[in-house]
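in:
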């Protein structure tokens, strides 16, 4: 399953910020979110996930698309919004039945539904991902079964199988 994530929408729903005592900058908060996703999405899911941010607050000279440790990150060009770019990506999806859009924005949820894609509210998806991360961190590596399947980054009902 391919995942499209409304970056700032998920950032606002998350509790991921740099751990130092200095208030985070927008760039630090973005990087903290991207690092969390890289560390908590299954490795095979990373190349199938795209996080989209508005270009507002983006570092000067940043390309429109970057790769963050295997995770695709897109910045909407100035004068366009991340929502517009996400709508284009949804519409361009060749198999929307295998697409999950993560956003609390009703406009994007409607676009996903109309295209036949699945969608998840950012807060619900974030809680599910955090719960899975905490659950896995309490299992000692020696206690983990090699065949244990932990590659479902979706809320209930959004399985990749």
């Amino acid at each position: 399953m391919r995942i499209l994530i409304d970056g700032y929408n998920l950032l606002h729903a998350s509790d991921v910020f740099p751990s130092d005592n200095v208030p985070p900058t927008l760039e630090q908060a973005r990087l903290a979110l991207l690092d969390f996703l890289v560390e908590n999405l299954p490795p095979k899911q990373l190349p199938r996930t795209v996080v989209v941010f508005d270009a507002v607050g983006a570092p000067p000279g940043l390309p429109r698309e970057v790769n963050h440790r295997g995770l695709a990150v897109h910045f909407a060009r100035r004068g366009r919004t991340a929502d517009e770019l996400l709508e284009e990506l949804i519409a361009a999806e060749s198999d929307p039945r295998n697409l999950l859009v993560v956003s609390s924005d009703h406009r994007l949820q409607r676009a996903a539904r109309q295209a036949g894609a699945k969608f998840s509210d950012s807060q619900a998806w974030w809680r599910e991902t955090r719960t899975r991360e905490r659950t896995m961190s309490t299992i000692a590596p020696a206690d983990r079964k090699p065949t244990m399947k932990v590659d479902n980054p979706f809320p209930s009902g959004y399985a990749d199988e």
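note: The mean pLDDT is 83.
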